[in-house]
Specification:
Order of helices and strands of chain A: HHEHEHEHEHEHHHHHHHHH
Distance between the termini of chain A: 39 Å
CATH class of the largest domain in chain B: Alpha Beta
Largest interface: A-B, 41 and 49 residues
Number of helices of chain B: 11
Strand content of chain B: 25-35%
Number of domains of chain B: 2
CATH topology of the largest domain in chain B: Rossmann fold
Largest sheet of chain B: 6 strands, mixed
Radius of gyration of chain A: 27 Å
Strand content of chain A: 5-15%
Number of helices of chain A: 15
Strand order of the largest sheet of chain A: 2-1-3-4-5
Distance between the termini of chain B: 32 Å
Oligomer: heterodimer
Strand order of the largest sheet of chain B: 6-7-8-3-9-10
Shape of chain A: elongated
Chain lengths: 388, 314
């Protein structure tokens, strides 16, 4: 073909509308093709969730203390106060809320604001005096059996001792009332019910971070960045083009983990599957944005991996995945609040195990959106448009 | 610089006083150049002379430390986005996606530039660069010559007005090099401006104008004939036996600036013609050597410029 056959209609490639979407789309298609060609990465998408899920069979056992507890006092009596004092003295419970209705009580537990609820029924003291052995209800959010388990297990004996001392009634053979422990949401205290939803978040954090953390540095190391920068594409367009394909990948991964969890481990999805899908997609996007931000900061792929690991480890340890969030010191809880996994673990446990409604999850949803926007803003400002 | 796109119709690149340093080392120093529209401008100089840096400053990939200018009438500092839309930049190292096929690479570029029919544009370009039958081959699996054709195809695909080619023919066989240059001339004939950096003298001679840059300084520019004439270099071509011995004897003598073997002959050059002639006089009628007063070749001129610049800048 000779050069003169070139058409001149597009000479100078004049600007057409929807440039933003066209360029983002060009980038997205390119990323998809590259992902498909990269067999190892492609295998990782399937292998990581399957392997991790099958490996994490057991939970890590701890004895967390000072767990947030709500009290529903329907009777204000000396005995009631003594019982509460005794419970607090066990050091497992820390009374953070006092409520006056059952609805409020249930709502606090469901939204995860408290892990325990203690209900002192009306006429409690009188019933004790009469020797009726009334029930003292201790409800526990057992979605995290590690957090709830030891506190519930210790209840009987510890309260008995404390109370006996407090009431100066010596060491009675039997408590004058019955403690009725109610492990809500996960009555059998099965660890896998807690682990599987947590794993959805953990696995997604790891894979999503690494996928995008390598994306910009890979272009720089392979020399393709020079070409890309010489073309009329903007940082936001590069970012969207690189994030969107992995949103779909992450979604497939999440579906895979949840399916295995439901089919193989018998984990229920009590809440809305659509809500779970929507918020999981948000979480995936947040992690991809953070990974992408790393990739605009680091110099090479090794640093990108290191940075991802630096972020991943606290995510596992401080998010409430491995150790109960409420059992951590306050400073660690603040740190945990800036990790997307912390919020997602609350969301995924609440939806799958508690059947939570969107209104219960507002705070964590907003936190995820905020973290995503912060990461994206940093990424776009950090993206180097020249080779300087 | 106050050239507007309209008034700059006959000048594609017009820059003045460009300087760029990396880590305290000045790579480009006070470089000024003008490139006419529709011409092929050769950019010559040794490795590390600042050619790539200059090209990157022209297309907005690097910000100059000092200096200003326009590229296609757009300010190289402020209008990088507009320049990128109209300039095709072919990097020294192959920088398309190795794990994308020929077709996918071209479609990616076509989409990025917003061509109306990305698939069609890619298909036409594959025909044009003669890669039909290899559309689905991964770019990374192509041979050097094919890679170079693909890279040229990718940067001409959005129909730019200016091509910046950074050592496009390095490591490419002579036949592919010739085809490549024929294509460049064809593009220039259509009105495209081409700035091409190269090490090859035969390629320099195929350019309308050339510039020679060494150690970041622009040392000479003009047509090939002008550059040779301006060099004020006198060259004698010697033929005969034992030219190696002659070369050894002459090197370093007064008036002799350069002795270089060319096949079966020897080029003896000097900037001071009378000193040169005085030195070679004793050798002129001995041992069967034939001396011929000749024009210096472009290579002689460049080697001399480089030797001189080494004295000045290092």
């Amino acid at each position: 073909m000779s050069a003169t056959e070139m058409t001149n209609q597009d000479r100078g490639a004049s600007e057409r509308p929807f440039g933003f979407w066209r360029r983002s789309y060009a980038m997205l298609v390119k990323e998809f093709i590259q992902l498909r060609r990269d067999r190892v990465s492609f295998a990782m998408i399937v292998m990581i969730p399957v392997m991790q899920l099958l490996l994490f069979g057991y939970a890590i056992n701890t004895t967390p203390r000072h767990l947030p507890t709500a009290v529903l006092i329907q009777e204000d009596s000396d005995l009631a106060r003594s019982v509460l004092k005794a419970l607090e003295n066990t050091r497992y419970f820390r009374f953070t809320r006092e409520v006056h209705s059952v609805a409020e009580f249930d709502d606090l537990l469901q939204s995860g604001k408290v892990l325990f609820g203690v209900e002192i029924p009306r006429g409690f003291e009188r019933a004790v005096r009469r020797g009726d052995r009334p029930a003292l209800l201790v409800a526990a959010d057992a979605t995290d059996p590690v957090a709830a388990g030891s506190a519930l297990g210790a209840l009987g004996a510890v309260v008995q001792t404390a109370l006996a001392h407090d009431l100066h009634i010596g060491d009675p053979p039997q408590l004058p009332f019955e403690i009725r422990a109610h492990a809500r949401y996960n009555p059998a205290a099965e660890s896998r019910l807690n682990i599987v939803p947590g794993l959805v978040g953990t696995i997604l954090t790891m894979t999503m971070l690494i996928f995008t953390a390598l994306s910009v540095t890979r272009e720089i190391e392979r020399g393709t960045m020079e070409s890309l920068l010489s073309m009329p594409i903007k940082p936001v367009e590069v970012m969207f083009g690189k994030i969107i394909p992995y949103v779909i990948v992450g979604f497939i991964q999440a579906s895979l983990i949840v399916s295995i969890g439901v089919l193989l481990f018998g984990v229920p999805i009590l809440g809305s599957v659509v809500l779970l899908a929507v918020l999981t997609t948000l979480f995936i996007t947040t992690n991809l944005s953070i990974g992408y931000t790393f990739s605009t900061i680091v110099q090479n792929q090794l640093q990108a991996m290191q940075m991802s690991m630096m972020f991943f480890l606290p995510s596992i340890l401080l998010s409430g995945f491995m150790f109960p969030f409420a059992g951590m010191p306050v400073w660690a809880q603040y740190l945990g609040e800036v990790l997307p996994l912390t919020h997602y673990i609350r969301i995924v446990r609440a939806i799958m195990l508690k059947g939570a409604a969107p209104s219960n999850l507002q705070y964590d949803t907003i936190a995820l959106i905020a973290l995503m926007l912060v990461a994206m803003t940093i990424a776009v400002t950090r993206f180097r448009r020249t080779l300087d | 610089m106050s050239l507007t796109p309209a008034s700059a119709s006959d000048i594609a690149i017009n820059v003045e006083g460009l300087s760029k340093s990396f880590g305290g080392r000045e790579v480009v120093h006070d470089l000024s150049m003008q490139v006419k529209r529709g011409s092929i401008y050769g950019f010559l100089g040794p490795n590390g002379s600042g050619k790539t840096t200059t090209i990157r400053m022209l297309c907005g990939l690097l910000t100059p430390d000092a200096g200003e200018g326009t590229c296609l009438g757009y300010d190289i500092r402020r209008d990088a986005d507009k320049i990128k839309r109209q300039v095709g930049y072919m990097t020294q190292r192959f920088s398309l996606y190795q794990d994308l096929s020929v077709r996918e690479n071209l479609e990616f570029v076509a989409r990025l530039y917003g061509l109306r029919d990305a698939r069609g544009a890619a298909r036409d370009m594959i025909q044009r660069i003669g890669l039909n039958g290899r559309e689905e081959q991964l770019a990374g699996e192509l041979s050097g010559g094919w890679k170079q054709r693909l890279a040229l195809g990718a940067c001409t695909l959005p129909n730019p007005q200016l091509l910046l080619l950074d050592e496009p023919t390095a490591g490419v066989d002579p036949k592919a090099r010739r085809d490549f240059w024929n294509e460049i001339h064809a593009l220039a004939a259509e009105g495209l401006t081409v700035l091409v950096s190269t090490h090859y003298m035969d390629e320099a001679e195929r350019c309308h104008e050339i510039a020679y840059i060494a150690y970041g300084h622009l040392l000479a520019h003009g047509t090939v004939d002008e550059v040779i004439a301006k060099s004020a270099l006198s060259t004698y071509t010697v033929s005969g036996d034992d030219l190696n011995g002659l070369a050894a004897e002459l090197t370093g003598k007064p008036g002799i600036d350069m002795v270089a073997p060319f096949g079966t002959s020897l080029h003896v050059s000097g900037r001071d013609k009378s000193a040169l002639e005085a030195t070679i006089a004793p050798y002129r009628n001995t041992r069967g050597w034939r001396w011929e007063d000749s024009e210096p070749s472009l290579e002689d001129v460049f080697i001399d410029l480089m030797n001189r610049s080494k004295d000045n800048f290092q």
